[in-house]
Amino acid sequence: MERAAALVLMTLLVAPAPARAQSPAVSLRPVLVQGAMPSETELLAGRLDGASVDRIGGWMFWRGTIDGYPVIVSKTLKGMSNAAAVTALAVQRYNPIAIINQGTAGGHTPTLRVYDIVLGTSAVSLGAFKSPRRDVGAGSNTLDWTPLDLTASEGSASSDPNARRVARFQGDRALLAAALGVKTAYARGQVVEGVIGSSDVWNDELDRIARFHSQFGTAVEDMETASAAQVASLFNIPFLGIRVLSNNATNGGAHDPKTGEACQDFVHRVIKAYVATLVRKAA
Ligand code: 5AD
Fold it and tell me: Which atom of ligand 1 lies nearest, measured to the CA of 199?
């Protein structure tokens, strides 16, 4: 982005500095892009211009610019708790204008192959359920469990009929449009829209995966997206999950950790496209 456009943005996209921000009284609100592992963050961090590193608790943030616009790459570490905690922390600390959570995932759709990318039209929690009553010795069957939406109300979810559904968080339309706009540039596989399911479980039971796919429409599963999306929604911050299949148990797709780099390369294009829309809006 040109310097002049950056100045226009400066006047239009400024926001009050968060309570604990260090220096400037006003600053552009950065795009925050999250990944759980080094293999899901380091390529993007290396593409930031003028990057500096912040360490907060066990988490690392690289702050820099892409096309002159501030972007923060956040290594969330793995799992739902890390994703939630670090998203809340980043919102308070950096006041992002939008959040992209990206990285690897396991396929739930049999026609999707390793290296295909899913743009999260929505993210669902695959970690909150109520089991039916079973007596001692009666065993356990997760296919009998009903979903629980822990965000449905402030009362007890177990007795609230409105909470007997999956918690679902919608992807932001402008972020999705930016991603769709660059999808033909991705040469490693297809880029499709779909539902991302998240929990701290790596599911390898094909009947359970098929149930999630048919009941909630999941295209892939991971361990972060729905959690970060939930926190982003409470702050009203536009959010999109972007996940590359690193494995697919439904069609024998073997795990390939190099997919994390392919995803970052695609997300880099998405960020450039999204930042360009922010500049156009401000001009
Ligand atoms: N199930 C769950 N998480 C997966 N991940 C990749 N594939 C899967 C899968 N099949 C991602 C998670 C987590 C790490 C284990 O890799 O998001 O960060």
Answer: 2
